[in-house]
Amino acid sequence: MFARLFRRAEASVDNAIGDLFNRLIVAVFLLIALGFATASLAITLNNAYGPELGNLLVAGIFCVLGIIAALILRPRTSSKAIESAADETLKAEAENEISPAGSIFDDETVMAVVSSAAPVIVPAMIRTGLKNWPLLLSIAAGLYVMSRQTEPTAGIRTSSAQP
To answer: What does each C-alpha distance from 85 to 80, 127, 130 come to in angstroms?
Structure first.
């Protein structure tokens, strides 16, 4: 009885994770394409208007796009609507009503997915990490070296010409 329930839960988690990875792969390629398009736009504007004005135009374009995205994605509720929603929530909690299903990113949903996927994912991550420990160590060392300041010390000469 429970085995079938666990198989269904595992299958739904596998499908959700597979969907997430498919979307992640698509998003990575689209972000790379957006990066190249931005670089091309920056080069074109730098050639046409000079480096200072070209970079300023690219920054302005992204500011305008950010403002448009903020206006589109802003919450569409007024303060009165928020107050009435809060009153309704308090009434629902007082009456112990079950609220309708919200977003997939609700706390309870995320915790349920994480708690059911963790016994499968964590051992796989540990096995993969143990197999690739030299690579992980070299990445950590590289990040450490790149994060250090590269200012020369006062006692060391940086020029090649000596008196």
So the answer is: 8, 47, 50
